[in-house]
Design brief:
Largest interface: A-B, 41 and 49 residues
Structural class of chain A: alpha/beta
Number of strands of chain B: 18
Structural class of chain B: alpha/beta
CATH topology of the largest domain in chain B: Aconitase, domain 3
Strand order of the largest sheet of chain B: 4-3-2-5-6
Oligomer: heterodimer
Distance between the termini of chain A: 42 Å
Helix content of chain B: 25-40%
Radius of gyration of chain B: 20 Å
Largest sheet of chain B: 5 strands, parallel
Number of helices of chain A: 7
Shape of chain A: globular
CATH topology of chain A: Aconitase, domain 4
Number of domains of chain B: 2
Order of helices and strands of chain A: EHHHEHEHEEEEHH
Number of domains of chain A: 1
CATH superfamily of chain A: Aconitase, domain 4
Distance between the termini of chain B: 51 Å
Number of strands of chain A: 7
Largest sheet of chain A: 7 strands, mixed
């Protein structure tokens, strides 16, 4: 994993990078197999991301890369270890045709950008893409195409703008 | 304005708003739970937002269990257990240890959940509590950790898909067969961001331990909750099992003119036993379609079907019999009281004599951690809830999901067998209470 993280430690989803494309119904057991989730350490979890489904992922993924998937990404268990493993791997965002509910909440809570993008199936493995979160589009540089994504609901947008659930709760407790 | 669904009413009550599907609300949490996998991350969040020495929003309504890797199968698991014990002790929360059982069994048995409650669990099968008429839902560790401090969490009020079932189930057909059929019909993501509601005369006549099965697996169609309107049966069950007196005067049910995303109706008498083929719960077919499929391992247990009544059904089938020579059977009671009742009522002896291996109460091999992990090429027939690729072990193993009766019948022959071909029993809610000490 090369280090192209920003000063804040976060990768920037507006920087073009490689898309790792997965299919439908990729559940959390396939993202982070159960035997590894005794750890809560992002770097350790990253070493096992998609280990059974796509063993080359953890070795070859580079900081800033994207995960692209079909329908119902992150279904199954509530383990936050799954989005955390992607954060640890330096993945700068996940684009899917749809997400399972708990994974979607967990990703937002961890500050991992997620976009629901019905046209994501046009993206091929290895394409160079970036996410434009403000415009709500995914840009495919390899194919010179772009795909509309669903805007975050207003409530969630506001939560993200307030620094996410942790910052929001902290502020609430301090009041 | 049309009437409201049960889900809308429950979240209206807990948020103090007139909540409608699609609204975002902040709601007050009644009960919060995490276990040995999800707890440690939630504790980090709690410390981050509230500080090391902060108070829990309600220690008496906060529960931590040690069930997924119990007893510890490695140093990291053991350290996680200690983290759970330390956090619970420091903050005065309820804590259940190795062998006490699966979170969802423990919360119900110990009387932590009442109709109308809003229950969040850092475990996806927290939808189970819908079987008692509570809004139970699974959340991640950050959600849970912040709620432990604030006692509140945001929710999008879900639309509801209603599953309406009328008539009598055939002998050998159970709630597990109903839910596998529902999942097969709407699909693995058919209820995502929505609540499932189970209603109709069949559901009303189901004992509570069977309703819990329906609610438990709502998540296998993506459901945020799986609700059954609480009734006298619910109250009687909770009073008998927990000693808690239940007041149903304020209990909610959906209005007749409530708006549903969709309504699916079923004739119970037409339903055959269901089996979900590898590798997704939505691959539900009539048992007759897969009869004769050879099995290597049978697994009886989990938060779905590890209750006393479930294991008793299997024991009844195996009474005086032995497992087919080609199979092994792993039995994992859902709770310590189930384990104890198995000992006291001869179920333990029956299963052991038949050749089964009985383990301590907990999650067992359901998620492929330990206690019966599958190898390459293994085929397992399980009373579990998930059969994803590699879920119970090797990526080259295959898991079929079915009811305890189907698993019991199949154990006799070493291949998937229609339980309607043999004598099967059905139990009401009193059998477990009868053997309570």
């Amino acid at each position: 994993m090369t280090d192209s993280k920003t000063a804040s430690g976060r990768t920037n989803p507006s920087d073009p990078a490689r898309a790792w494309v997965f299919g439908d119904n990729v559940d959390t057991d396939q993202i982070t197999p159960s035997r590894f989730i005794v750890s809560s350490d992002p770097d350790e979890l990253a070493q096992h991301a998609f280990e059974d489904l796509r063993p080359e992922f953890s070795e070859s993924v580079e900081s800033g890369d994207f995960v692209v998937a079909g329908e119902n990404f992150g279904s199954g268990s509530s383990r936050e270890h799954s989005p955390l493993s992607l954060v640890g791997a330096g993945v700068s965002g996940v684009v899917a045709q749809s997400f399972a509910r708990i994974f979607f909440r967990n990703a937002i809570n961890l500050g991992l950008p997620v976009l629901i993008c019905p046209g994501a199936d046009a993206i091929d493995d290895g394409d160079e893409i970036h996410m434009d979160l403000d415009a709500g589009v995914v840009v495919n540089h390899t194919k010179d195409e772009q795909y509309d994504a669903e805007a975050l609901p207003e409530f969630l947008q506001s939560l993200v703008e307030q620094g996410g659930l942790k910052a929001y709760t902290k502020a609430k407790l301090d009041r | 304005m049309t009437g409201k669904t049960l889900a809308e009413k429950l979240l209206s009550e807990k948020s103090g708003t007139d909540a409608r599907a699609g609204d975002y609300v902040e709601a007050e949490i009644d009960v919060a739970m995490a276990h040995d996998i999800t707890g440690p991350l939630a504790f980090q969040t709690f410390h981050e937002v509230a500080g090391e020495d902060a108070d829990l929003f309600a220690p008496d309504r906060t529960i931590f269990t040690i069930d997924h890797h119990a007893p510890a199968d490695g140093v990291q698991a053991a350290n996680n257990h200690n983290a759970v014990r330390d956090f619970a002790a420091k903050h005065g929360a309820n804590q259940f240890d190795v062998g006490d059982g699966i979170c969802h069994a423990v919360l119900v048995e110990e009387g932590f959940v009442s109709p109308g409650d809003l229950v969040i669990g850092a475990d996806s099968h927290s939808t189970t509590y819908g079987g008692l008429g509570a809004f139970g839902t699974g959340v991640g560790s950050t959600d849970l950790g912040t709620a432990l401090a604030s006692g509140e969490l945001w929710f999008r009020v879900p639309q509801t898909i209603r599953f309406e079932v009328d008539g009598d189930l055939q002998d050998g057909v159970y709630a597990k067969d109903l839910i596998l059929r529902f999942i097969g019909d709407v699909g693995f993501d058919g209820c995502t961001y929505m609540a499932a509601e189970y209603a109709g005369s069949t559901i009303e006549s189901l004992p509570i331990h069977e309703r819990l099965v329906l609610s438990n697996m709502a998540i296998e169609m993506g459901g945020k909750a799986g609700l059954v309107a609480p009734d006298d049966r619910t109250a009687a069950y909770l009073e008998r099992q927990t000693g808690n007196e239940i007041d149903l005067d304020d209990a909610f049910r959906s209005d007749d003119d409530a708006e549903y995303e969709s309504v699916h109706t079923y004739d119970a008498a037409e339903l055959a036993p269901q089996v979900s083929k590898p590798s997704n719960p939505e691959n539900a077919v009539d048992v007759t379609d897969v009869e004769g499929t050879e099995i290597d391992q049978l697994f009886v247990g989990t938060c779905t079907n590890g209750r006393y009544e479930d294991i008793k059904i299997v024991a009844d089938i195996l009474e005086g019999e032995t497992l087919a020579p080609s199979v092994r059977m792993v039995v994992v009671p859902a709770s310590k009281s189930v384990y104890r009742h198995m000992l006291n009522t001869g179920v333990f002896q029956t299963l052991t004599d038949a050749g089964a291996v009985i383990q301590n109460a907990g999650c067992g091999p359901c998620a492929g951690y330990h206690q019966g992990v599958l190898g390459d090429g293994d085929v397992c027939l399980a009373t579990a809830n998930r059969n994803f690729p590699g879920r119970e072990g090797s990526m080259d193993s295959n898991v079929y999901l079915a009811s305890p009766a189907t698993v019991g019948a199949s154990a006799l022959y070493g291949e998937i067998t229609d339980p309607r071909n043999i004598q099967t029993n059905r139990y009401d809610d009193t059998i477990f209470a009868e053997v309570l000490p």
